[in-house]
Amino acid sequence: MNLHTEDNAAIAPPDSSYAEMQKRLGERTIKRHEPPALLLDEGGMIQGCSKSVESLFGYRLSELVWQHISCLFPQLSGVALIQKGQINPKLEFISHCGHIFLGLNKQGNAIPNQLNFIRLEHNGLCTLRLILRPSNSAG
Asked: pTM of this prediction?
């Protein structure tokens, strides 16, 4: 092993490639463990999603962008996510109570999730962050 001691008595590898590798591994770990989350506009159209959503549902981001959230969660078809500038009160209530929403992956298999809706506003524009918590129960 080719290590050297620096002035502060810390042991470090002779080149920075190890540090770079650790940084890259750390970034991958963060991405792998990020919560499944979607970004929606006020009408429920998907604007973006985390890599963990892609893994969970089997879709690439490019397949989800500009699709309505009901493509993943059919229960949300025809539901107004925003009412009077706020998250639909009924939707917010049942999501806080731990209601299980059945998602459908690309193969058509049911994926039970608890959903948390977070309203974000920036420069007068409202977006929703939808955080998914996959569940073992089938509601």
From this structure: 0.73
